[in-house]
C-alpha cells in the first residue's frame, strides 16, 4: 500500500451489497459486493461487458439495480437517482462524456454543477475558468461543445466532476482519449482528490495505470466479482488471469522481418489539409504505420484525409494506383476516435451497423440477400468476440468496447484498400485488444496498408513497424524498426511541442475568435432576419409610400402578435427535440370556447371564467401531448397529430358554423394601443424577452435545451427528463392561449375552421428564427423576427399587387434560403483535431 493510503483514513464511503441487474433476461451483474473507501484509489478491472460500467451506473444513480442495496453515509438505499447521487457528492466521469453538444462549455457546466460550486471572487465565469485550467482545458467558455474533440470533452467532464469536491469520484476509462500531458494532469488531480479523503473508483484496461495510481483492485468477469486485493499483493499475471479467465499470450503479435526488397504498398507524398501540412511517408507490404504526437497536433485530421473524409492536396498511392479523396472515401475502412458521433448509428442493430459498408456484397440486382449478409456478419462478430445477445440487438445496448469492435467489423467487411484507425483500442479490454492487434497485423500481411493513430506510445511501439511523430500539423520525426520505443516517441513529441504553437496549429487546438463564436451561435440568424426585414421594408416602401402608414404598421403588429405567441410555444417544444402539430387547431378550439363566454351581455365574472376555461383547455392539451410522448411512447408527430384531429373535431362539434360574436369591449381591450404599439404586440414582445432570459440565464432554460441536445447525457447530469418534456408541451399550449386571445379579437366570432393554418406558419417562423428542428438550440428572439417576417411578406404582396401564389412562393423560398445559410454558417463549428 502506498504512502498516500497509509495517511488517508480508510472509512467506508459507499458499500454495494448483492447488486444484480438483468437486461432482457441477460445478467449484467450477479450478486456483486463492493466496498469503496475514502482516501483510496480503487481500480475496477474486467473485460468489456464484464459489468464495470453497469455497476458504476448503479453507484452513480444512472442505473436502477434489480436486487441489492447501496449504503452511503450510514444510510441504505434500494437505488439512487442522479439527483440523489449529486446531493451525496457522488461524481462520475463517463466513458462516453455526458455533455450536450448544442450547449456552450459554460452552459454545460451550469446545467450539471450546482450554483454554490461556481462562486468565486471574480464570479461564476472566473470559477469555471479556474476549474477548467486545473485539468488543462484551454478552449473558450462560449465555444460549442459539439466543436470539441473527444479528448477535450473528457477534460470538461473531469472538470465538472472535480468542481463539486466529491466524496466519491468515479472515473470510467478517463485516459482512453488523452495525450501524455493530459494524462499527467489527470493523475495529479486523482492523487490530490484521494489525499483529501475522496474515494476514487478508477475503471481502466491499462495495468500500468493500476500500478501507478491504485491502492486496491477488484476484478469483474461475467457480472461477478472474481477477486479483490491490495494492488501491492497481486501480480500482473494474476490480474490478467482473473480478467480473462485464462492465461493470456503476448499482447502484441510478432513483427515481420524487415525486407529491403519488399514491395512498397503505400506512398503518401506532400499531403496537406486543414490541420496538417506536407506529410510524407511510405509503407511496404506487411508494415503497419503509426501516427504519434501530443493529442491535437493534426493526427486525426491526417487520418480523416487518408480516409477521404476531408479535402486535401498531395499524392496518395496504394499498390501503385493513385487515390483521390472520392476514391479513398469509397475504398477505405475508417475507425473514428469518437465512435458514438461518427462510427455508429445508435438506433440501428449490431447487424445493420456491421454490414452497412458492405451491402454491395450481398445484393442481387436491387434486392438484398439476407442469408449471406447474416452469415458474414455472424462470422465477423465471432472473430472479434463481440458480446451481444443477438445480431439484432441495438448497438447502443452494447458496452463501449463491444461497440468499438462493431466499428472494426464494419471496416473489415467492406474489404478496404486501406485501413485507417484512430485510437482503435480506446475503451477495449486487454483480451480484445490483443485480438485487434492480431487482426490489424493479419490485414497488413494480406496486403492492405494499415495506418494507426494512438495516444498510447507503448501501443505504437509494440504494434507498428514505422511511426511518424507529428507536431503542429507537421512530421517532426520518423522512427522505424528498433528505433520505435515509447521513450523515443514521447521525447520527440514533447521536445517538438514544448514551445509556442506555429502557424499550422490545428484549428481545434486554438482559441476560437469572437466572430466565429457569433457565427456558430444562436443569434446569427437574428441578425440575418433583421437585415432581411429592413431590406424588404425598404424595397416595398420604394414602391408604395403608404407602406409605413399608421394603419398598416398597426395591422402588421397585431397579426404578428397572434402568430408570435403561437410560434413562441412551438419554439419551447422544438427546443426539447419535439414538435407540436396541434397548436393551430388548439388556437381555433380556444376561440370557439371563448365565443360562448366573451360575448355582449355576459358579466365580467363569466368572461373571466371563459378565459380560465380556455387556459385550462390549453394546459390539459399540453399534459395529454407530453404524457402520450413520454409514457405511452408515442412519437411527437403521432401524439400531436392525434390531438390535432381531436381538437379540430371538437371545434366543429361545439360550433358547426361561425357564431358567437365577441363583445366589442373585449376586442377593444385586446387591440388597445400603448403609444403607437398595440397592447397585444407589447405583451408578446415582453413575453419573448422573458422567455429568452429564462432560456439563457435560468437552470430551467438550460435543462430544456439540454434535453433537446442529448437526452441521455441530460439524464446522467440529473435533469428530470419526463417532467421537463411535459412542462415544455404545457408551456407551448399556454403560449397558444395568449395567441388565441389575440386571434379572438381579430376574428370577432367563434369560427371552427380558423386557426389550423397557424401550425405550419408557427413551424415556419421557428425555422426562420434559427431554432433547430432536432432540438437543443434556438432563440425566442429569432422566432419573434421569423413571425414578423412571415407577416411582413404577406403584407408586402398586397402592397406590391401580387397574387396569393407569391405569398407561398416567398415563404418557401425564405425557408430554403434560411436553412442553407444556417447550415453553412454552423458548419464552421466543425474542427479537425
From TrEMBL:
Bilayer disposition of the protein: Multi-pass membrane protein
PROSITE patterns the record matches: ABC_TRANSPORTER_1, ABC_TRANSPORTER_2
GO molecular function: ATP binding
Domain ABC transporter stretches: 14-247, 260-497
Primary residence: membrane
Annotated TM spans: 523-541, 604-624, 636-654, 674-695, 725-749, 755-774, 781-802, 808-825
Protein name: ATP-binding cassette domain-containing protein
Protein species of origin: Jatrophihabitans telluris
Amino acid at each position: 500500500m502506498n504512502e498516500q493510503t497509509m495517511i488517508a483514513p480508510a472509512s467506508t464511503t459507499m458499500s454495494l451489497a448483492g447488486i444484480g441487474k438483468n437486461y432482457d433476461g441477460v445478467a449484467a451483474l450477479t450478486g456483486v459486493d463492493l466496498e469503496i473507501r475514502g482516501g483510496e484509489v480503487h481500480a475496477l478491472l474486467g473485460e468489456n461487458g464484464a459489468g464495470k460500467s453497469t455497476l458504476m451506473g448503479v453507484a452513480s444513480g444512472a442505473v436502477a439495480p434489480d436486487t441489492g442495496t447501496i449504503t452511503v453515509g450510514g444510510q441504505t438505499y434500494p437505488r439512487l437517482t442522479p439527483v440523489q447521487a449529486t446531493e451525496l457528492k457522488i461524481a462520475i466521469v463517463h466513458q462516453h462524456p455526458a455533455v450536450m453538444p448544442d450547449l456552450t462549455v459554460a452552459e454545460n457546466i451550469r446545467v450539471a454543477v450546482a450554483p454554490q460550486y461556481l462562486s468565486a471572487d471574480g464570479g461564476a465565469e472566473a470559477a469555471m475558468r479556474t476549474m477548467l485550467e486545473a485539468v488543462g482545458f484551454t478552449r473558450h467558455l462560449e465555444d460549442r461543445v459539439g466543436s470539441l474533440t473527444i479528448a477535450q470533452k473528457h477534460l470538461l467532464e473531469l472538470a465538472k466532476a472535480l468542481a463539486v469536491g466529491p466524496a466519491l469520484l468515479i472515473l470510467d476509462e478517463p485516459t482512453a482519449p488523452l495525450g501524455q500531458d493530459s494524462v499527467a494532469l489527470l493523475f495529479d488531480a486523482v492523487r490530490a482528490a484521494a489525499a483529501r479523503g475522496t474515494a476514487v473508483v478508477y475503471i481502466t484496461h491499462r495495468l500500468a495505470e493500476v500500478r501507478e495510481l491504485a491502492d486496491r483492485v477488484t476484478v469483474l468477469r461475467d457480472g461477478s466479482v472474481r477477486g479483490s486485493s491490495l494492488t501491492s499483493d497481486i501480480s500482473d499475471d494474476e490480474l490478467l488471469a482473473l480478467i480473462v479467465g485464462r492465461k493470456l499470450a503476448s499482447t502484441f503479435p510478432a513483427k515481420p522481418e524487415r525486407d529491403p526488397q519488399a514491395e512498397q504498398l503505400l506512398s503518401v507524398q506532400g499531403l496537406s489539409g486543414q490541420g496538417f501540412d506536407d506529410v510524407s511517408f511510405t509503407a511496404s507490404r506487411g508494415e503497419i504505420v503509426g501516427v504519434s504526437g501530443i493529442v491535437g497536433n493534426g493526427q486525426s485530421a491526417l487520418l480523416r484525409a487518408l480516409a477521404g473524409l476531408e479535402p486535401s492536396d498531395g499524392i496518395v498511392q496504394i499498390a501503385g494506383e493513385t487515390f483521390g479523396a472520392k476514391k479513398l472515401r469509397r475504398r477505405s475502412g475508417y475507425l473514428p476516435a469518437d465512435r458514438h458521433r461518427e462510427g455508429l448509428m445508435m438506433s440501428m442493430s449490431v447487424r445493420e451497423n456491421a454490414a452497412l459498408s458492405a451491402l454491395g456484397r450481398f445484393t442481387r440486382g436491387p434486392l438484398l440477400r439476407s442469408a449471406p449478409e447474416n452469415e458474414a456478419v455472424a462470422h465477423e462478430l465471432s472473430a472479434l468476440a463481440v458480446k451481444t445477445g443477438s445480431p439484432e440487438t441495438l448497438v447502443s445496448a452494447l458496452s463501449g468496447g463491444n461497440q468499438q469492435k462493431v466499428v472494426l467489423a464494419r471496416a473489415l467487411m467492406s474489404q478496404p484498400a486501406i485501413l485507417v484507425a484512430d485510437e482503435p483500442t480506446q475503451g477495449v479490454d486487454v483480451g480484445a485488444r490483443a485480438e485487434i492487434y492480431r487482426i490489424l497485423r493479419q490485414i497488413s500481411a494480406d496486403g492492405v496498408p494499415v495506418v494507426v493513430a494512438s495516444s498510447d506510445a507503448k501501443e505504437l511501439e509494440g504494434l507498428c513497424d514505422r511511426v511518424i511523430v507529428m507536431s503542429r500539423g507537421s512530421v517532426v520525426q520518423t522512427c522505424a524498426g528498433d528505433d520505435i520505443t515509447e521513450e523515443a516517441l514521447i521525447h520527440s513529441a514533447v521536445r517538438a511541442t514544448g514551445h509556442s504553437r506555429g502557424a499550422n496549429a490545428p484549428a481545434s487546438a486554438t482559441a476560437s475568435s469572437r466572430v466565429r463564436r457569433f457565427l456558430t451561435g444562436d443569434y446569427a440568424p437574428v441578425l440575418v432576419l433583421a437585415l432581411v426585414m429592413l431590406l424588404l421594408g425598404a424595397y416595398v416602401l420604394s414602391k408604395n409610400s403608404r407602406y409605413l402608414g399608421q394603419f398598416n404598421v398597426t395591422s402588421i403588429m397585431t397579426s404578428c402578435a397572434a402568430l408570435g405567441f403561437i410560434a413562441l410555444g412551438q419554439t419551447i417544444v422544438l427546443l426539447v427535440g419535439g414538435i407540436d402539430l396541434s397548436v393551430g387547431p388548439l388556437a381555433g378550439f380556444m376561440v370557439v370556447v371563448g365565443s360562448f363566454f366573451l360575448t355582449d351581455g355576459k358579466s365580467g365574472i363569466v368572461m373571466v371564467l371563459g378565459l380560465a376555461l380556455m387556459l385550462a383547455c390549453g394546459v390539459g392539451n399540453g399534459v395529454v401531448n407530453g404524457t402520450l410522448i413520454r409514457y405511452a411512447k408515442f412519437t411527437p408527430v403521432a401524439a400531436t397529430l392525434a390531438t390535432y384531429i381531436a381538437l379540430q373535431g371538437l371545434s366543429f362539434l361545439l360550433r358547426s358554423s361561425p357564431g358567437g360574436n365577441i363583445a366589442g369591449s373585449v376586442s377593444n381591450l385586446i387591440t388597445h394601443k400603448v403609444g403607437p404599439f398595440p397592447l397585444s404586440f407589447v405583451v408578446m414582445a415582453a413575453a419573448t424577452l422573458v422567455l429568452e432570459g429564462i432560456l439563457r440565464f435560468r437552470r430551467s432554460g438550460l435543462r430544456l435545451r439540454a434535453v433537446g441536445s442529448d437526452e441521455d447525457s441530460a439524464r446522467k447530469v440529473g435533469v428530470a427528463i419526463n417532467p421537463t418534456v411535459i412542462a415544455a408541451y404545457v408551456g407551448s399550449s399556454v403560449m397558444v392561449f395568449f395567441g388565441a386571445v389575440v386571434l379572438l379579437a381579430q376574428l370577432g366570432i367563434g369560427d371552427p375552421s380558423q386557426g389550423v393554418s397557424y401550425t405550419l406558419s408557427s413551424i415556419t417562423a421557428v425555422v426562420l428564427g434559427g431554432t433547430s428542428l432536432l432540438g437543443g438550440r434556438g432563440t425566442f428572439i429569432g422566432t419573434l423576427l421569423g413571425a414578423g417576417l412571415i407577416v411582413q411578406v404577406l403584407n408586402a404582396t398586397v402592397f406590391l399587387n401580387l397574387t396569393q401564389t407569391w405569398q407561398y412562393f416567398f415563404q418557401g423560398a425564405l425557408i430554403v434560403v434560411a436553412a442553407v445559410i444556417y447550415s453553412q454558417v454552423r458548419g464552421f463549428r466543425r474542427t479537425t483535431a
